[in-house]
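#struct-help
A.M.: can someone run this one for me? Single chain, 282 residues.
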Amino acid sequence: MSKKKPIVALIYDFDGTLSPGNMQEFGFIQAIGKSPAQFWGDSDQIAIGQDASNVLSYMKQMFDEARKAGIKLRRDDFRRFGEKVELFEGVKGWFKLINEYGKSKGVIIEHYINSSGLAEMIEGTSIAHEFKRIFACSFLYDKDGLAEWPGVAVDYTAKTQFLFKINKGILSVRDNKLVNESQQEENKRIPVPNMIDFEDGDTDAPCLTTVMMFGGHSIAVYNPEKEHKRETARTLLRQHRVNFMTPANYRKDSRTYHLVCSIIDKIAADCELQHLSHFMGR
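D.P.: on it. Structure tokens below:
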């Protein structure tokens, strides 16, 4: 009896998970003549002063500071800033390694971004082509191609909606109909138990716990050079908000690689058992 190959979705936050810092800190903030502390401090003051979204506040801050510095913000400008974003050790080779391992186990691997960072900057990174879909913040552009208004703002709770879009195979950000329609679990393109979610902070807890709640696999990634990041991961693990924690090293000899391979082994075995159970019950 023929069967479909199961799809395993690896879903990543970006800042602090694949990159050691906020993407704005690798060129954009320097271009506007600010320090990271100044930029984020000003952004926080907007949010605090007006009880506003931190995400919309940083997007406004980028827009306002670029205008004051005489910097035009077109999609290609964001992508050029994205080219300067640094990545953790092993990230560039990670996707090929995992894709090959998944293939050897009879599963299809797909990679997704689910981030409060900027989609346009992620599109400029050297790994952008590895993702089936980048769900992240983005701007609207005027007739001259200049950013003029936030188009998508992804905060820590909004990120959960994209988990369910991936679950149902919906790649449109705009869709709010199909994602809310009732659908039998067996008809969903990627069941949550076939998801592996990588996050780095306590604000990511809604995503991590949602994945865990529905039987998926959540991983707290931390920068091994920053003790407070390690402690955040420990706290998430202690509070049972994640299944695992691992340093942000993506080389073949890393704990992250061996952990994810073991999870893929489990998903492949579970799918095989489900198939056998269904077949024998007919």
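A.M.: thanks! The first strand starts at residue 7 and ends at 12.
D.P.: also worth noting: The mean pLDDT is 92.
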